């Protein structure tokens, strides 16, 4: 039967060309360079902004580069022109990414493309995954923008239903049987696998549909977008599938670009369409550079409908569970620095039935024209190394391939082009142009059979894993498996369970690549133990049961004693402090000074930051927040969260339409339109200098107002002035924004005290007498004293003989905070990856300094210390530049490292020296050139961790009462230990 199938396929291809080497083509009587193929297809929508444009001719057309014009919304686009397949395939590569959601036209001088409107190639680009709402949506209304199979394609009994929407879907509203339902003519709900991601929804029936029966796909208005819009009017589709019988399976080989050589080496097999190596998956990203690529190979088993019944559009299917295997990816940071591991073998899994068609080419009536191929794939990537798998594994839905099919020497040969856009570490969208190539086996009767697979999914890594001290309420639990599970086998409470002391904890879940992500309905509780159980009821895509696994973790201990108002640990753009209005001069580019109870010693005048057009406003908080208190204002000076256009005098001109995305410890403000270059804006986080949660005030889940001005030495339970940050819109950037959190940390409840439930400095190893500085702490020691002070000690007092007691576990103060950074990219001169750091503010716990005042012991609590990083000098004496750091590779240690230098201002606003309201000098006390260096590592689940230690000692000479008393403190070498960690990847 397979031989008959191949004959039928060959006949179909011959009817529209594709004879390849089996026929002689005479071009003498035709116009030179007849068009046979294009990518994208004419009028194709959702095209990647990174896609190349390909036009293949019957022979080299003799076009010059000046004959090629690509026009978009801003006019002509700069492009580079190259040729493949002996000059028959024109490849047009834009010099920069195209605009999102925009129409483009490719025209060739002196040539009219047959079968397309206007004689030129027209297409529409897809939406952004980040940035302004307008960049992420195709229309203001939330509607279905594409349904597949399209009306001019047969809907088959083996078809998968695919929809695209005008806006990204809110996955929590995709509820099969409620907001999405497929029913038969008896109103029975059909079992399906539902996949959602971005603006895409795939519905794959578990069993083939019955030909001739009527089915109804219903989408209700309960389906919503991430911007809070409901599906306008819902949607309903009446479906009558056609019969594929008698279908047969065609076995095709997706061969490696070369059995031995890597994809980037010379001499590998290249695509006749693009000239790129075949069956290679390149990943281009700022984080990875442009040399990361995996070489794929494997057999593909395609089910073809009975071809004589479908001469104009022959349907095909590649079954769910199909696999392509890839060689390891080299993980190089910035494309140059080895991360210390590769990906291990790469697996590309088909997570639904892929569908496609063999069609006549629309561009030519020539008998030599090849058949056109359309394929839509839902894929999952996974890797053998747990760190790489955690960082890269994901599902890529509705990858469109457009190709050509011919017959050469008795084999069907398919070449196709598509673009994948995977996420890297959950913070950057990479892209890769696929030049897919498959050839059918000539002897189908003896073609390879599917390889038997008897191994099921195994837990590879998980979050939090062994790092529960870094876990916080609102973070998802993630199980990273070594292969993609079949989500139809996941049933909460049955095959996948989350419990607390045996009681079920309700949760939502999703599968992304080989990861199962659990999102508890209510935030997990501090100080509580949880168990996650994965049973053998969970199966892989081929029906193999998972290895059962139960993992246990405990949330960090949390004290409810001495609660304190929350603060913003980082803001972007800007600096996390309310400013003194009198010090603000927007016309001069000055944000102003942090408001202080010693305004004359408030420190630097902060610069006016910029915000690229393709970025959102981002805030991190020190505590769990009441997200219902975050209300976007709709008029000037209204709302607890406000975004406004302003003039140079700070007057509100108009409200900026935006969407809030509030999380338990984060707030993202997404503008409706990109920020206008050069325009002044401000955002405001509302608070008040009182207790409790009032109108237009952001509050914690404990009902305490946002503290915005720690330099005012406020009471612990009050808020502060509104945190108002002015900024200027700037052009879009391709730097990678990476928010980092200080984790783990001792001061879990962020009350600037070390409570009895919290773990402070410990002896390591036990009995050694060694007390290493723990993560996110700074060590203080006494180096001298004078005046009325006749003795001093940090952390503990004195013996009866007034000798300092020994307390090596009491010398540290513990830090709370975070930092925002930009990954800029490779710097050739430094031989390092450049990183921009936006100056952070770190808050420390109070530390008791014991002193002898004329021989009388007394205790001096420092109160909360505020360590403010300073902007760099711009060469004019003004501090306006962000900080600079470098990721390097230490060849001796075989280790990535990070180094930077900070100038700090230290403030102890609440300190009362010697128990008296005496003046002191710890207001904007300078700690210059704090050199920091340490390793860059990756947790087993893929999250990035940067550890930094201070390389030099720093003196803090405390002067009390204008010389009445002095205490000389010092931070020793290695006395500052910072750990910054990236957020959850999912």
From TrEMBL:
Residue ranges of domain SbsA Ig-like in the record: 35-108, 143-236, 454-554
Any Pfam family matching the protein: Big_5
Keyword set includes Signal: yes
Classification via InterPro entries: Cu-Rt/internalin_Ig-like, SbsA_Ig
Keywords annotated in UniProt: Signal
Source organism superkingdom: Bacteria
Name this protein carries in UniProt: SbsA Ig-like domain-containing protein
Species per Swiss-Prot/TrEMBL record: Alcanivorax nanhaiticus
Taxonomic path: Bacteria, Pseudomonadati, Pseudomonadota, Gammaproteobacteria, Oceanospirillales
């Amino acid at each position: 039967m397979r031989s008959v199938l191949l004959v039928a396929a060959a006949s179909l291809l011959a009817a529209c060309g594709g004879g390849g080497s089996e026929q002689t083509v005479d071009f003498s009587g035709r116009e030179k360079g007849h068009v046979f193929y294009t990518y994208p297809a004419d009028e194709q929508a959702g095209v990647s902004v990174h896609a190349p444009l390909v036009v293949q001719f019957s022979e080299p057309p003799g076009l010059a580069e000046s004959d090629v014009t690509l026009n978009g919304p801003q006019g002509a686009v700069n492009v580079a022109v190259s040729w493949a397949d002996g000059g028959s395939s024109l490849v047009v590569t834009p010099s920069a990414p195209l605009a999102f959601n925009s129409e483009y036209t490719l025209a060739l001088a002196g040539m009219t493309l047959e079968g397309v409107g206007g004689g030129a190639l027209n297409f529409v680009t897809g939406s952004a995954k980040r940035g302004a709402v307008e960049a992420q949506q195709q229309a203001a209304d939330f509607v279905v923008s594409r349904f597949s199979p399209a009306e001019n394609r047969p809907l088959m009994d083996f078809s998968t239903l695919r929809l695209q929407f005008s806006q990204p879907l809110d996955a929590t509203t995709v509820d099969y049987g409620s907001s999405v339902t497929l029913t038969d003519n008896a109103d029975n709900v059909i079992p399906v696998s539902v996949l959602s991601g971005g603006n895409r929804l795939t519905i794959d029936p578990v069993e083939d549909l019955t030909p001739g029966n009527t089915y109804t796909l219903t989408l209700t208005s309960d389906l919503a977008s991430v911007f809070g819009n409901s599906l306008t009017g819902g949607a309903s589709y009446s479906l009558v599938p056609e019969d594929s019988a008698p279908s047969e399976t065609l076995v095709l080989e997706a061969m490696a670009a070369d059995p031995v050589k890597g994809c980037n080496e010379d001499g590998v097999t290249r695509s006749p369409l693009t000239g790129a190596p075949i069956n290679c998956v390149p990943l281009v990203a700022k984080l990875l550079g442009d040399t990361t690529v995996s070489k794929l190979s494997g057999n593909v088993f395609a089910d073809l409908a009975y071809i004589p019944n479908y001469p104009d559009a022959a349907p095909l299917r590649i079954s769910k569970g199909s696999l392509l295997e890839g060689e390891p990816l080299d993980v190089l940071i910035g494309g140059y620095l080895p991360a210390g591991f590769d990906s291990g073998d790469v697996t590309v899994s088909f997570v639904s039935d892929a569908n496609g068609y063999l069609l006549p080419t629309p561009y030519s009536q020539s008998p030599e024209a090849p058949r056109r191929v359309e394929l839509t794939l839902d894929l999952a990537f996974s890797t053998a190394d747990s760190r790489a798998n955690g960082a890269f594994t994901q599902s890529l839905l509705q990858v469109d391939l457009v190709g050509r099919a011919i017959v050469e020497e008795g084999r069907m040969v398919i070449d196709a082009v598509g673009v994948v856009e995977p996420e890297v570490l959950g913070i950057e969208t990479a892209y890769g142009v696929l030049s897919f190539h498959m050839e059918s086996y000539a002897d189908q009767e003896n073609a390879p059979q599917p390889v038997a697979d008897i191994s099921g999914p195994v837990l590879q890594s998980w979050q939090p894993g062994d790092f529960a001290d870094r876990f916080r309420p609102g973070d998802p639990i993630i199980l990273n498996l070594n292969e993609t599970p079949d989500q139809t086998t996941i049933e909460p409470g049955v095959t996948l369970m989350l419990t607390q002391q045996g009681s079920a904890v309700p949760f939502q879940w999703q599968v992304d690549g080989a990861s199962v992500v659990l999102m508890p309905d209510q935030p997990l509780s501090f100080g509580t133990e949880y168990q996650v159980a994965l049973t053998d009821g969970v199966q892989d895509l081929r029906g193999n049961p998972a290895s059962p696994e139960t993992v246990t973790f405990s949330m960090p201990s949390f004290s409810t004693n001495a609660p304190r108002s929350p603060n913003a640990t980082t803001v972007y753009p800007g600096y996390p402090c309310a400013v003194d209005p009198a010090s603000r001069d927007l016309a001069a580019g000055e944000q102003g000074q942090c408001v202080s109870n010693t305004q004359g010693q408030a420190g630097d005048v902060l610069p006016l930051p910029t915000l690229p057009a393709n970025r959102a406003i981002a805030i991190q908080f020190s505590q769990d927040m009441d997200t219902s208190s975050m209300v976007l204002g709709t008029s000037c000076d209204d709302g607890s969260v406000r975004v406004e256009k302003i003039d140079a005098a700070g007057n509100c001109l108009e409200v900026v339409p935006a969407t809030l995305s509030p999380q338990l410890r984060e707030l993202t403000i997404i503008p409706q339109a990109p920020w206008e270059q050069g325009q002044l804006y401000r955002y405001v986080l509302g608070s008040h200098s009182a207790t409790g949660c009032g109108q237009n005030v952001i509050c914690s889940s404990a009902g305490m107002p946002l503290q915005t001005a720690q330099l005012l030495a406020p009471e612990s339970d009050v808020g502060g002035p509104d945190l108002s940050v002015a900024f200027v819109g700037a052009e879009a950037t391709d730097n990678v924004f990476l928010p980092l959190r200080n984790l783990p940390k001792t001061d879990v409840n962020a009350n600037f005290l070390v409570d009895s439930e919290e773990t402070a400095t410990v002896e390591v190893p036990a009995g050694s007498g060694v007390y290493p500085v723990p993560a996110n702490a700074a060590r203080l020691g006494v180096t001298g004293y004078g005046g009325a002070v006749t003795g001093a000690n940090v952390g503990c007092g004195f013996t009866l003989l007034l000798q300092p007691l020994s307390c090596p576990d009491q010398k540290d103060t513990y830090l709370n905070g975070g930092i925002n950074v930009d990954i800029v990219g490779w710097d050739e001169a430094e031989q390092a990856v450049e990183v921009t750091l936006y100056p952070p503010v770190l808050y420390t716990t109070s530390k008791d300094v014991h002193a002898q005042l004329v021989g009388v012991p007394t205790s001096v609590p420092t109160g909360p210390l505020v360590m403010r990083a300073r902007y760099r000098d711009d060469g004019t004496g003004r501090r306006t530049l962000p900080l600079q750091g470098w990721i390097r590779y230490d060849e001796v240690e075989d280790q990535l490292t990070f180094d930077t230098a900070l100038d700090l201002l230290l403030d102890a606003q609440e300190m009362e020296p010697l128990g008296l309201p005496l003046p002191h000098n710890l207001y904007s006390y300078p700690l210059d050139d704090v050199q920091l260096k340490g390793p860059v590592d990756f947790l087993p689940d893929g999250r990035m961790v940067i550890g930094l230690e201070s390389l030099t000692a720093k003196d803090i000479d405390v002067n009390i009462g204008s010389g009445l008393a002095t205490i000389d403190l010092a931070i020793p070498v290695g006395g500052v230990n910072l750990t910054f960690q990236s957020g959850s990847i999912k």
